[in-house]
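FW: tagging you since you asked about this chain on Friday. Here's the raw sequence from the shared folder, copied in full. Didn't touch anything.
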Amino acid sequence: MDEEQTVVVNINQDYCSRCSICHSVCPYEAVRRDPETGRVEIDVQKCQVCGICYSACPSFAIEILYYDYNSLVGYVEELRNKTSAETIVLMCRGNSPSTREVEEILTEQGLSLKNYIPLRLPCSGRVPTEFIFKVLGLGVKNVVSIQCEDLFCRFKEGTKINTRRLFLGRKVLEELGFAKDAIRVVKYSRKVVYDTLKCVGCDKCVFICPYKAIEADHFATPKILYDYCMGCGACALVCPHHAIQLKGFEFENVLRRYCDSAVRLKAEGKSPLILVFCCQWSEFSALDNPEAVLFKRNAVTLEIPCFKALDPVHVVNALMNGFDGVLAIVCSAEDCKLQEGRDTAERNVAVLKDFLKKAGLLERFELFEASPRNSGTFEKKLDEFMRKISALPSLKPMKGCKP
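HL: got it, structure written out here
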């Protein structure tokens, strides 16, 4: 980690009432409380920037760099003026469905929405109740929160906390005359998709799953225990026939996305081209505003749900199909939201680097550990990598867009 840090979460002691609510709700024990004075401070090294403390503070004494109240309200006001949408759909980064998936999820809940404002957040637990009241006062009529299932929450308690908040808020709104369905909570977690017709029964997925969510069957194909599936993507990497894949990160879809981008950018004369695989939890700004951070650098980003879902095949294939360099951004072992099975990801990278070295491509790939609490380090690392790749000759595609 880069030791130079911008403080992304801070407690303004002039506003702090010493109520210690932030101390009680922090899932990572990152809020320290002096038992004698009652003074509370944030331990930045433990902080995961989930924002749960920020949303719980009754006096707005906690200052946060990402998704603060004013920024969220400003975003909604801007889109309201452009679209006149009367519904906001809050989406947790953990499920972070695409627009089509949002509509599928809502349809399953009996909701049919075409015109809405999507608001993607690292965790549903970081939404202050005041924000919900504010947007309803701006003319929004419905707020739908697509939350991870309780056990799936990447920030441990975020889903539970926000569910309670929204239900309490709904009670208050009903007393004020708002419709009962002005606030809706939808539970959804990203899981694997399993096509048993493609399965050859090798049981590799059974052995690789770090959460024991796959069971072997001596007389049939393996069985997925969806209640235990955490959506890390480790099983998808070892399946030889893509019989098991993570919804939203299917191999062919990912392949098509970066290959199509390479073809388009090459046709526009852009060079060098960089492909960035970025864990959803290691960086916030670049993933939420790629136009400002990535596009101007000829960089294409693909989110991955975890370090374990970084597929070496895609790294090699990208370098053979138009990209001049591949940068992987992941969480450190201490920050990993899905720590079980990290050794598998590290072995995959070791094998990948060995192959790239033999193919003369090793200098075109780098793996970098990052955290949202280290503001600016992502852009700094990307610029360094860009300069390094710019000094190398441009790679010519070696084959068609397929592995």
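FW: The chain has four domains: 9-63, 69-187, 195-246, 251-390.
HL: agreed, and The mean pLDDT is 90.
FW: great, closing this out.
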